[in-house]
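Aspartate-semialdehyde dehydrogenase (Flavipsychrobacter stenotrophus), 329 aa
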Amino acid sequence: MKVAIVGATGLVGSMMLKILEERNFPVTELIPVASERSVGTKVTFKGKEYDVVSADTAIDMKPAVALFSAGGGVSLELAPKFAAAGCRVIDNSSAWRMHNDIKLVVPEVNGHVVTKEDMIIANPNCSTIQMVMVLQPLHLKYKIKRVVVSTYQSVSGTGQKAVKELMDERAGKSGQGVYPHHIDLNVIPHIDVFQENGYTKEEMKMSLETCKIMGDDSIKVTATAVRVPVIGGHSESVNIEFVNDFYESDIKEELSNVSGVVVIDNPAMNGYPMPLEAEGKDEVFVGRIRRDYSQPNTLNCWIVADNLRKGAATNAVQIAKLLHNNGWI
Ligand code: 2RA
């Protein structure tokens, strides 16, 4: 199968290549696509070098599927062109996520909504993906009324320049101004742009995408998204108010049986999820599971995942696998 990666030289694009290889996805020909300035450079996939090509060249090569992670502007312009040429698009940008006709998919949560007709499928925001992996099984059993989430997001979510910024600052070098403030030894409560309502786009993504993926607009979500000097993954403190009461032991048991979720919850042994340990893994890790005694039917938990893997590349490849398993690519 011919597979295009649009944004192949970026952090997520490179991770997509890694995941495709790790999972032995049936790629017969790789078509790496990047900006004009990268055309002619090479990427290595399964020990073979491939020339980076332009989007037009890639379309002419007729890929069966294209994984995008090149920013919203590129996706808005190019996803329809690839789709019109008969290529399925799985887009990691935010461009199409809230479009009425575009499915927003976490395979373990709502993979069933994908149909043969879907030519563009949106990959959710990384901080949303890891949260809904935990919320969905609990929603089905206890029905969620409201979620309050605070995120602690890795600089890798911003990209390669941000990772370099952090490491340069840690080495005492001046930064490139990737963030509005110093990131080392600091936290910045500002991810993406501020909206009129005082929330950032990142925070609004978590609210809106969660309801779309879970198929329930009655779920109220409020978020505070924070950038922290971490590389390996995003962490989230999540407070969940249910319609129905629960036993903590049942919650831990239920989450332990969810595919793609790992419970690490052993405070007595300092056992809880951390990005340093989640990095490089595809699972979503949940711990610090405990009742919120300040109000009825409410739970606190702590969710961590590698934002480049399950938060982006792995989820996208899982969607491609879903299409392949259905014989649609
Ligand atoms: C971030 N979730 O962490 C956003 C985009 N990857 O910056």
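The chain has a mean pLDDT of 97. Residues 126-142 form the longest helix (17 residues). ok done for today
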